[in-house]
TrEMBL record:
This is UBP-type zinc finger domain-containing protein. It holds the Pfam family zf-UBP. Gene3D superfamilies: Zinc/RING finger domain, C3HC4 (zinc finger) (3.30.40.10). PROSITE patterns: ZF_UBP. Residues 3-101 form the UBP-type domain.
Amino acid sequence: MSDGCTHRDTIRSVTPSAKGCEDCLRIGSEWVHLRLCRACGHVGCCDDSPHRHATAHYRATHHPIIEGYDPPEGWGWCFVDETMVDLPDQTPQWGPIPRYV
C-alpha cells in the first residue's frame, strides 16, 4: 500500500448508509461493486457501475477516501492523491447486501 496519501486524518469509523448503493437503490438501478465513504458512511457504486455514485459523492462532498465494501475488501483509495491507502480498520458489512449485475 502507498504512503502517498495526505488525507488519512479524514478517515473515520462510519456506519454504512444503506444495504447497497444508496443512490442506485433510490432509482432502481444496478451496480457492480460498492464503495464506502470513510468520512461519512455513504455507500456508492464503483466506476464500473452505470452511475458511478461513489465518485459522484466525492465530487459533491470532497470526502477523499473510500473503502472497498462488498464484501469488505480491506483496501482504501484516496481520490485526491490517486493512491491506495492503508486503512486503520475494516468496516463490517451491514448486510446481507443484494447482488446486482
